Amino acid sequence: MKNSFTYKATDKIAGFDCRPGIYTLNGASAMLHAVNFNIHSMGAKSCSVVLFRRGETDPFAIIPIPDSYRIGDTWAIMIYGLDIYEIEYCYRFSGEFAPEKGLLFNEHTNILDPYARAVTGQSVWGKKSTISDCYHGRICTDKFDWGNFSKKEVPFSDLVIYELHVRGFTKMLSSGVVNPGTFNGVVEKIPYLRELGVNALELMPIFEFDELFEDREYKGSKLMNYWGYNTTCFFAPNTSYASNVEYNHEGDELKELIRTCNENGIMVFLDVVFNHTSEGNEDGTIFSFKGLDNNVYYMLTPDGKYVNYSGCGNTLNCNHPIVQRFIIDCLRYWVIEYRVDGFRFDLASILGRSEDGAPMENPPLLKMIAYDPILSGCKLIAEAWDAGGLYQVGSFPSWNRWAEWNGRFRDDLRCFLKGDNNMAWAAVQRITGSADLYPPDLRGENASVNFLTCHDGFTMYDLYCYNSKHNERNGWNNTDGDNSNTSWNCGVEGETTNEEINGLRRRMIKNAFTALLCSRGAVMFYAGDEFCNTQFGNNNAYCQDNEISWLDWSRLKKFREIHDYVRDLIAYRMKHNIIRHKTKQSRLGFPDISIHNSIAWNDTFKPDDHVIGVMFAGRDENDNEDAVFISFNAYWESCPVELPNLPAGYEWQIDFYTNYKYGDDKAENMINRSGNRLILAPRSAVVASIRRL
Fold it and tell me: Does one domain contain both 104 and 164?
């Protein structure tokens, strides 16, 4: 039975019965009659457990841990007679305070346990706690019943990932949920997600973070750290994402979300931020790693300043052995306790930097994660760059385990679709699986996560409404955010009543989704893109907890055409497995993948070519012949396209045409066709498949 060991107290310390604790049990753990506290520090001279009554600022007990309870750099103590439902805790350490050496010990500073499984703080979103001047840990009990939970595995090539912000997904009244802005709010939308066809959620940061970190007022609006890329505690779910105060059962609502997703065939990935923390630089606060072992957990300059490869003030020293172990412990915890299916690693190139900041050829941390036996079933997705200029798309260390956000897919397809020259060959490379970046004999077919939009940048709608970013409401005079969006406003900046331009924008969005959903590799898009959600031209909405970032579900009715197109195209992708991965060889004489320009089987491109064709061919799971042909005309005039000739007994049927009128029965009726020759309208795409006569 869990925690059934019986230990007897051996000492009386500060009025409490105590004994040496369990040195391999990290954090604070409820035992049969006691609480086991375990913490380690390489530089501290002494350590005390600080206890608070629930919701109080001043401690009711400070319990120094005797030196005899210390083994190596680890202190472990069992304290008896504690009511875990009524206490909170932290630590205090004594040691040298010498910032120039990277040492910040102070025996009066309360230090949050990095392994705390629940944290006091902003339990109510956007409201600073009035009862505590520091973060306290809580002692959790695990009573969640997973039932007959059995993980649903989705092959990498089948993934259609839906990236969402837990709060923003359902915060607007138009979402129609009972629990807006919470884990339970997402649960209420699972029928919608299932009907759409996505099979994986990628949750933006849900580790405990301080949304009021560097909050400010700008022209009457309150700006805060809405996205959550400023972790406070890596083992605790964000309290303000729960619809009810859970206290000692922290995480039950997140577990319910994961279990319900699993029951509906949807995997759950977490966006994790191991590159920096919310303690900031030398001007930031000291509440956790800084006061525990500042010169171990952070990359520092020789004079004790913070190296900033993250762009957020500090950089975790990921390849120090202590930090490596911490990160592995954390990932294992979320897999074991929360049944998480995978992780997306923010600015993952930092995880491959040595302690002096240099990129490593075989980073030990990345290799440890790849080969860890607990993590072996998890999807590992890297954002393969960092703010220090290290860009590793196509070269991120993988061990055939790590996949990458394919930034080249985003950039090349955006350029091609808006009509840039010299992009035709790059476009077909991306659609056919980016073999130039991920050679199949070295990386297989499980390396590329294809995307055109994500939380960082324009939404799909804004991509074709704005030439330039409009981040004025962020308060930085529009200097923040990426200046290189490779977007096109279709002739007017922002909203317009011009129906010709609006029609072109809808067609461009459908073209983009066609390229995305008919490409080899896993697929990802940002929540709301399927019904043209807008951020009003803001491409860096990290601080906008309002209508800029929240999904406006009323647009689902307004842009039902786009939603239905995306839904149908996802179903089509799942129906034709030749799109997703290589299958059994076609008996019709077609290769697995073939590339075409406007003329069938001609795979050469001139600088000003804007018409491409890609054909996938093979046999389905029932051994039936299958072939899908996708063609794009990114030119501003109509262009002819030639479909490959088929053997006797087969013909091409038109399944999707982005220029056809919504509501018409068949795309076939809307395209100019003469036999195998099609005339594609300006800036349009077509998808065709074979059928027996």
Answer: no
Whether 59 and 10 have beta carbons less than 8 Å apart is answered as no
Give the separation between CA 448 and CA 396, rounded to whole angstroms.
Answer: 11
- How much is the pLDDT for 665? 61
Say which of 246, 293, 346, 445 is annotated catalytic.
346
Output the pLDDT for position 116.
96
**pTM of model > 0.85:** yes
Q: Which residues of the chain have pLDDT under 70?
A: 1-6, 121-122, 129-133, 246-249, 665-666
Is there a domain that residue 373 lies in? yes
Rounded distance between C-alpha atoms, residue 380 and residue 31, angstroms: 34
DSSP-derived letter for residue 71 is E
Last residue of a domain, one of 513, 544, 575: 575
Compute CA distances 356 → 34, 292, 489, 592, whole Å: 42, 21, 44, 46
Q: Are 116 and 50 in contact (CB under 8 A)?
A: no
596 alpha carbon, distance to own chain's centre: 35
Q: Which of 163, 341, 383, 462 is catalytic?
A: 383
CA distances from 190 to 32, 80, 170, 614 (A): 39, 44, 12, 34
Q: Which domain holds residue 517?
A: 157-274+340-575
Residue 174 amino acid letter: S
Active site residue 383: yes
What CATH number does the domain containing 597 carry?
2.60.40.1180
My answer on whether 189 and 80 are in the same domain is no
Cα–Cα distance for residue pair 504/403, rounded to 1 Å: 34
Q: Domain ends where: 526, 541, 575? A: 575
Are 257 and 397 within one domain?
Answer: yes
Query: Which phi and psi angles does 291 have, rounded to 5°?
Result: -85, -5
Query: Do both 354 and 450 map to the same domain?
Result: yes
**CA pair distance 37, 45, nearest whole angstrom:** 17
Residue 470 falls inside a structural domain:
yes
For residue 1, the model assigns a pLDDT of: 38
Distance between CA atoms of residues 514 and 509, nearest Å: 9
Task: Name 390's Cβ contacts closer than 8 Å, sequence gap at least 6.
Answer: 309, 349, 350, 352, 353, 359
Is 346 catalytic? The answer is yes
pLDDT value of residue 120: 86
Residues in contact with 87: Cβ distance below 8 Å, sequence separation at least 6, in sequence order:
51, 52, 53, 54, 139
What is the C-alpha separation between 230 and 232, in angstroms, rounded? 7
Residue 333 resides in a domain: no
The pairs formed by 383-387 with CB atoms below 8 angstroms and a separation of 24 or more are 383/344, 383/345, 383/346, 383/347, 383/348, 383/349, 384/348, 384/349, 385/347, 385/349, 386/275, 386/309, 386/310, 386/347, 386/348, 386/349, 386/350, 386/353, 387/308, 387/309, 387/310, 387/311, 387/312, 387/347
Please classify residue 362 by burial: count the beta carbons closer than 10 Å to its beta carbon, then call 0-12 exposed, 13-18 middle and 19+ buried.
Answer: exposed
Nearest in space to 7 (alpha carbons), one of 40, 44, 35, 27: 35
Task: Please give the backbone phi and psi of residue 468, each rounded to the nearest 5 degrees, phi first.
Answer: -130, 155
Nearest residue to 69 via CA among 20, 13, 12: 20
Tokens of 10: 């051996």
Q: Give the CA count within 13 Å in the CB-facing half-sphere of 517.
A: 29
**DSSP code per residue over 553-569:** TTHHHHTHHHHHHHHHH
